[in-house]
Design a protein that fits this description.
The chain is an alpha/beta fold. About 25% of the residues lie in helices and about 20% in strands. It is built from nine helices and 16 strands. It has helices at about 30-40, 60-75, 100-105, 115-125, 150-155, 215-220, 230-235, 250-260, 285-295, and strands at about 15, 45-50, 80, 110, 130-135, 165, 170, 190-195, 195-200, 205-215, 240-245, 270-275, 300-305, 315-320, 320-325, 330-335. Strands 6-16-15-10-11-12-13-9 form an eight-stranded mixed β-sheet. Strands 2-1-3-4-5-14 form a six-stranded mixed β-sheet, sandwiched between helices. The protein has a two-stranded antiparallel sheet with strand order 7-8. Helix 8 (about 250-260) runs parallel beside helix 9 (about 285-295). The mean pLDDT is about 95.
Length: about 350
């Protein structure tokens, strides 16, 4: 499948904000306001949708969320869509989204992660439109650590410009910032040292392919369906598949990864990138052992502790982009090219 990249975002463009999964509780609206003002300060017009209620786990009934998201993605005046964050049940939108209309429309950038990967990964696989797995709207006010790129860095990049990222060597080990008390927080707490690790063996890694992936706990629910058909998408190309665990214990992650592998999700993988996680080990199985048990039979490099999970900081990955991953004793880097 040919990958289509939305044109770079420019000052004056409109950015749509909607919550396809969870909305924003009233006590956290201050952070939402800060994030919106930051986008406006960069010269963008921000359009906040109606599906933003945060009183339950969903921002609105599924039909309303699907209609608003589809509307924004087919509106030629909206050049990017970013949700406040993820949630729990975005899967209820998949049978309601008009993927054909979205595919016919001029491509629009969509950025997000966690439960939003339930939507953006199928969107890329079904329509060929590149999407961004990276920080979301509520993360946007944070200063981007040296070596990484934010979703805004990606969507404003010139076509064909190499997007290189290197791990900063530090991450957050515990806790989250309290947006109710500190809505304007801009500095990520990165209190623990640590870089990428190769799980499947030793030796240098230098591999290329198209990027695709997302959150294990949400994507597993559509594995084996047309919504997650990476084989048809690859059409003979190698893939760099990235996955990350949010909160499920190692037994569940092990089962989920086995199921995704049996469903063909990793069939074209030239390497697998695994996000750093705080998800718990099981009594007799660690998260690392779960990954190796399920994905070791692939016989490809498995690089873990990548900044694409639920542990800050966040590395922006473009579904559909061509990527090159290098991991040696002296250097870790991923370079993406939007072509």
């Amino acid at each position: 499948m040919d990958v289509r990249y939305p044109r770079p975002l420019r000052p004056g463009d409109r950015i749509g904000v909607t919550s396809p999964s969870s909305g924003v509780p009233e006590r956290l609206r201050g952070r939402l306001d800060v994030a919106v003002r930051d986008l406006q300060a960069r010269g963008y017009e921000v359009v906040v949708g109606r599906c933003m209620d945060g009183s339950t786990h969903i921002s609105a009934p599924a039909a309303e969320r699907a209609a608003e998201l589809t509307g924004m993605l087919t509106d030629p005046t909206i050049r990017a869509v970013v949700p406040p964050w993820g949630g729990e049940t975005a899967v209820d939108l998949l049978h309601l989204l008009d993927f054909e209309a979205i595919g016919r429309a001029e491509p629009t950038w969509v950025a997000g992660w966690s439960d939003i990967s339930t939507l953006i990964t199928p969107l890329t696989l079904l329509t060929g439109v590149a999407t961004v797995h990276g920080n979301n709207l509520m993360d946007t006010p944070y200063r981007t650590p040296e070596g990484l790129l934010s979703w805004l860095d990606v969507v404003t990049a010139a076509p064909g410009e190499p997007l290189a990222q290197t791990p900063p060597g530090r991450h957050r080990s515990t806790g989250w910032d309290d947006y109710a008390l500190h809505p304007e927080v801009r500095d990520l707490t990165l209190d623990t040292a640590g870089g990428w690790t190769r799980l499947d063996g030793t030796g240098d890694v230098d591999v290329e392919g198209r990027l695709i992936g997302g959150c294990i706990e949400t994507l597993v629910n559509v594995a084996g369906t047309r919504l997650l058909d990476t084989r048809a998408f690859a059409e003979g190309d190698d893939l760099l598949v990235y996955v990350e665990a949010c909160e499920d214990n190692a037994f569940t992650i092990c089962r989920n990864l086995h199921g995704m592998r049996l469903a063909g999700f990793f069939d074209r993988a030239a390497a697998v990138l695994v996000g750093r996680t705080k998800a718990p080990d099981a009594p007799t199985l660690s998260q690392t052992e779960a990954v190796l048990d399920a994905l070791g039979p692939l016989g490809v490099p498995i690089v873990a502790d990548v900044e694409c999970g639920h542990v800050p900081p966040y590395l922006a990955l473009v579904n559909g982009a061509r990527g090159r991953v290098v991991h040696t004793a002296a250097r870790s880097e991923i370079v993406q090219t939007l072509d």
